[in-house]
Amino acid sequence: MRVVLADDERMVRTALRVVLDAEPDVEVVGEASDGAEAVTVVRELRPDVVLMDVRMPGIDGIRATERLVASMGGAAPRIVVVTTFENDAYVYDALRAGAAGFLLKRVAVEELVGAVRLVARGDSLLFPSALRGLAAAYGPRGRAAAPPWAARLTDREADVLRLMARGLTNAEIAARLDVGPATVKSHVAAVLAKTGTRDRTQAVIAAYESGFIVPAEQW
What 8-state DSSP symbol labels residue 125? Predict the structure, then answer.
């Protein structure tokens, strides 16, 4: 797994490199000290994963994420924003922009490595309670008009999207709905296609942003 580190603090980048390069299946292939440099380095090196500091001088991690997703489309790497505070509005904006999830800077080493592996294989770092709190604090107020894609979801797909927002895995959703994992995988793919999103995090963000799911209703 090829990783690029984007952080304006050299010591942070060095610490991350030491941790990740110690893993046999991970290679740090590049670094950037701000968002503009991150965009250039990522476009050149085409890594699998980017660990992107959310707050950087000049172009921050949010704008850099937007530019990479917009310019690279399906070829864009999986971007994980790294932050000090999980209730930061910057985090929610980065998820809106296309990040696959976020990590706190104080995360344990094994969690960091696990997160890189997780997103590299196409999964999302979805922390349901944190995401619900972010949506409640920084998302739209109240219930908006139903999005066009809502009418295209089957009842079962709508159920799957709501369970995705609760952070359930495919296996857990299958057990909850009493269907096979392959069926759930098919439903998740349909949800992503109909909502026009690239992963589970983006689908859940779309559900919150459109009012299809209201944060207060999730628990």
Answer: B
State the chain's maximal CA–CA distance in angstroms: 50
Instruction: Report pTM.
Output: 0.79
Query: Which conformational region is residue 120 in: left (phi greater than 0), alpha (psi within -120 to 50 degrees), or beta?
Result: alpha
Question: Tens digit of pLDDT for each residue in 169-207?
Answer: 888 999 999 999 999 999 999 999 999 988 888 898 889
Please report, for residues 43, 46, 95, the alpha-carbon distance to residue 80 in angstroms, rounded to integers and kept in the order given: 16, 15, 9
Nearest to 37 by CA among 73, 5, 77: 5
| CB 84, CB 183: distance < 8 Å | no
Q: What gap in Å lies between CA 201 and CA 128, rounded to an integer? A: 10
Question: Which two three-digit tokens encode residue 211?
Answer: 């009012």
- First-to-last CA distance in the chain? 36
Supply the DSSP symbol for 176: H
* 48-82 exposure pattern, b = at least 16 Cβ within 10 A, e = fewer: bbbbbbbbbeebbbbbbbbbbbeeeeeebbbbbbb
Across-strand partners of 6?
A: 32, 52
